[in-house]
Amino acid sequence: MTHHFSYQNDTLCVEGLPLTDIADQYGTPLYVYSRAALTDHYLAYARACEAHQYPDAPAQICYSVKSSATLAILHLLSRLGAGFDIVSGGELARVMAAGADPQKVVYSGVGKTANEIRYALSQDILCFNVESLAELHRINRIAGDMGQVARIAFRVNPDVDPHTHPYISTGLRENKFGIPHEEALSCYRIARDLPHVQIIGIDCHIGSQLLDDAPLVAALHRLIFLCDQLEAEGISLRHLDLGGGLGIAYRDEKTISVGEHIARIYDIVRRWRQTRHQGKPIRLIWEPGRSVSGNAGILLTEIQYEKSNAATRYLIVDAAMNDLLRPAMYEAWHDVLPLVRRVGNPQTYDIVGPICESGDWLAKNRALTVREGDRLAILSAGAYGMSMASHYNTRGKAAEVMVDNGRAHLIRPRETAEDLFATERIVP
Ligand code: LLP
Questions:
Q1: 274 C-alpha vs ligand 1 centroid, how far in Å?
Q2: Which ligand 1 atom sits closest to the C-alpha of 208?
Q3: What is the mean pLDDT of each run of 10 residues along the chain (428 residues)?
Q4: What is the reported pLDDT for 163?
Q5: Active site residue 62
Q6: Residues 6+ apart with CB under 8 A from 221
Q7: Ligand 1 atom with least separation from CA of 287
Q8: CA 31, CA 140: separation in Å to the nearest integer?
Q9: Burial grade of 343 (CB within 10 A; 0-12, 13-18, 19 or more)
Q10: Ligand 1 centroid vs 190 CA: distance in angstroms?
Q11: For 276, how many CA atoms within 13 A lie in the half-sphere containing its CB?
Q12: 348: how many CB neighbours lie within 10 A of its CB?
């Protein structure tokens, strides 16, 4: 639990505001974000960069939109100076609607369609993180048709093990992401000779929820090795993008401090630039998602029923895997707290949703003193919570609230069933 969400007199509060009041007003399931938490987590990156970056080549923090993409969140971060890491035309439309500066947008993803590339070129984004030669040629062709030059970096797959859940590990040789580092040099040579692309950087992203930055350091050394080879061939790069991936505490994990991590990376980069590039600056780009949004949001839910069988005591709640997929998909742990603490002997429960899947659970084996009608907070739900929500079982998506300075603002109303099928057509 971060200090933005804490108990005051047995009532769980966000920035000092009782969550029971917010749940009374907006109902459950409900995502609640703390503006102060989002701001603090973003500023941890911004301040560390300010302290270490090259003034002539200031760092750019490109918040990873996929982690939590609601407009109010993007708008807040954009006003703080964030750029964005996007992976679809939809995310580009979102960041533009939120007031993003396209010159701070980098576009990753293995499957960019022609329409998406055209749209990104029309918005003049900073850089495409190119993930294959086929994509490079497509970008070159479309940029040529549009009379433009596309700025590109290759996303290099450095083949380092990030020691995280296999589903969120992306920088191993066998993953679908990026180009193998052994092939990077030849890809850059090909790109150099294309008329409608301009090489500006190098990129990688090795995985998410990293609790140790040694794999990121190993990836950095791979990129540095490549940069030197490129430089020797006259291809010099403006930026180096290390992706995102720093983990957060869901339970009691020891995490990497953002400030220390950034200092460590700059230390390596500085020594490298001094020894082999006469101290010439290079710009660093970071793509944090979870470490900004994860512990800035929680999911509120109400206990509908208690139910037991021979093996298990269940709390059936009104939130489900369609609201928060992480437990079902990765067996992820999220702490669960009652909005109001009761006295009494705790019981051990599995907390499950109403969806017709045995995988529809939010937490297992939790000791709680609760009864029907009580409300619970599922913590650390700010990243990959709402952004992975679905309409399964024709369940409208939850409402979302952002708390700012003791006031709750509805940032997305609850969807009604009619919203879900409003655009559908029947066959006459
Ligand atoms: N950059 C790229 C290219 C990415 O693919 C990702 C995340 C990030 C940055 C941000 O990574 P972060 O700082 O959030 O770790 N749904 C999973 C996580 C998937 C991460 C996908 N890529 C989960 O709920 O754990």
A1: 32
A2: 15
A3: 87 98 98 98 98 97 98 98 98 98 98 98 98 98 98 95 79 84 96 98 97 96 97 97 98 96 98 96 98 98 97 98 98 98 98 97 98 98 98 98 97 97 97
A4: 84
A5: no
A6: 268
A7: 9
A8: 42
A9: exposed
A10: 29
A11: 14
A12: 11
- The pTM assigned to this predicted structure is 0.97
Q: State the closest ligand 1 atom to the C-alpha of 326, by its place in the atom list counted from 1.
A: 24
Ligand 1 center to residue 170 CA distance, Å?
9
Closest CA to ligand 1's atom 23: 384
Tell me the C-alpha distance between 371 and 201, whole Å: 56
Q: Taking a C-beta distance cutoff of 8 angstroms, is the pair 158, 207 a contact?
A: no
Q: Which atom of ligand 1 is nearest to the CA of 209?
A: 15
In this predicted model, what pLDDT tens digit does every residue of 239-294 receive, in sequence order?
999 999 999 999 999 999 999 999 999 999 999 999 999 999 999 999 999 999 99
Q: How far is the CA of 27 from the centre of ligand 1 (A)?
A: 29
pLDDT value for 2? 65
Determine the Cα–Cα distance for residues 271 and 240; give it in Å rounded to an integer: 15
Q: Give residues (CB < 6 A) around ligand 1.
A: 64, 66-67, 85, 108, 168, 205, 208-209, 243-245, 287-291, 326, 330, 383-384
Q: Which tokens is 156 given?
A: 């290099």
Asked if 242 and 215 touch (Cβ cutoff 8 Å), the reply is no
